[in-house]
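Page 42, continued from yesterday. The earlier attempt failed because a stray header line got pasted into the input along with the sequence. Redoing it now with the clean sequence only.
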Amino acid sequence: MRNASVRPLFVCVLLWLSTAVLIARSRTETVEWPSLAAEIEGRDVTVRVGGGKKRWKGRVESVNPTGLVLASKKRTETLPRDSVVEIEYRRTLGARGRIVGTVAGVGAGVPVVVFAEIYQRNETSSPRIRGAALSIAAVAAAAGYFLGRERDVERVVLRISRP
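This time it went through. Structure tokens are written below.
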């Protein structure tokens, strides 16, 4: 009987977590090489080169007329201008999503704790129900935070225009 009462809650949590895919922000732009430096210098990026199959990750040191200087953990590489196809980075927009998500997660978790307390007082059941309810509330708050964090980040894809 316990499993039957947990299933709807489990399904609700899964549906709530799957909304991260729906709320993620993404923007794609086509840019020219001379205007690239102002947008990406100093950022951690993923650069697609060649036919788009090879990827380089690192921090952009500089953008010059001949190429892109990218520093990774192991070394600094200069990627030729003609080989760079696409540049992707993540930009943080603020903290509103994390705050709202955490509050919503706590709001979803508190009724579970209250219900568990009422149930435990009315029934002679195991004291483990309180711990389970508190765990569910903590997971709901953490899930809300991480969903909100996805809302606070924008994925920016810059496609390099060819003259």
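Notes: The chain is about 50% helix and 30% strand.
Reminder to self: strip header lines before submitting.
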